[in-house]
Amino acid sequence: MPIAIDKFAAYYARSQHREPPLHLGTRYDRAGRFLPEPGNTVVCHLVAGSATEAALTDAKTRYEAMPDAAGLAFTPVESYHMTLFQGIIEGRRSYPFWPADVASDTPIEVMTQLLAKRLERLPKLPPFAVEVSTALPTGLLVDGATAGDRHAMAQWRNSFAEVFGYRHADHEQYAFHITTAYMIDWIDDAALPAWQAMLDQVCTEIARRAPRLELRAPAFCSFADMNWFEELRVFEPGPAIAQP
After folding, report:
1. Domain 7-229, CATH 3.90.1140.10 — does that match?
2. pTM (global) more than 0.85
3. Domain extents for the chain?
4. Rg of the Cα trace of the chain?
5. Average pLDDT by stretches of 10, the chain with 244 residues
């Protein structure tokens, strides 16, 4: 029986694109080397030594074994994280990606200090659990494990938007994810069935080994490129909200 290609994998098909991948040449080059692109962000890193880290490490090995894996720029496992709220980044210096009340030419390191100061107003927020939903050529789509978890994650995002002073256009529809690679070249359409089969197996295996992804507490981080996200301030969740 032919393998059905889901809409997520189909997006990466060469036939769907006339232009090269968005970040090629600015975030990474054709050799898979990451380029300077400083900024800050709020993420939940994987718990080091956890079943989740082991499962994602094994998944990376399977990605790298694909015949056309040279078309991906892989990020190191120690950088794996779920982005909870996007900070600011070099090359994207206008509202709503940048606070409207701050000059757009403010240096990134000054912006990091300014946003860190604003985070002193962040309220205590509830914990949440996360599970994998879909495997992509570039990583995983994830979401709250329950309706309560998804509500808590929305609370975190709304609170960060409030204290930072900006809200991206996709704020409500933002797809939580863990990036493990970036596209250097789009995937040949003929190769998509093999990719889909591998991605389905990866998703099933991660869900089996780590039904709830083991993530550290949300942290405000700075970065110079996509290889490392330095935790500057960690936000331990408050008490869980009772479910009706």
Report:
1. yes
2. yes
3. 7-229
4. 18
5. 72 96 97 98 98 98 96 97 98 96 98 98 97 97 98 98 97 97 97 96 98 98 98 91 52
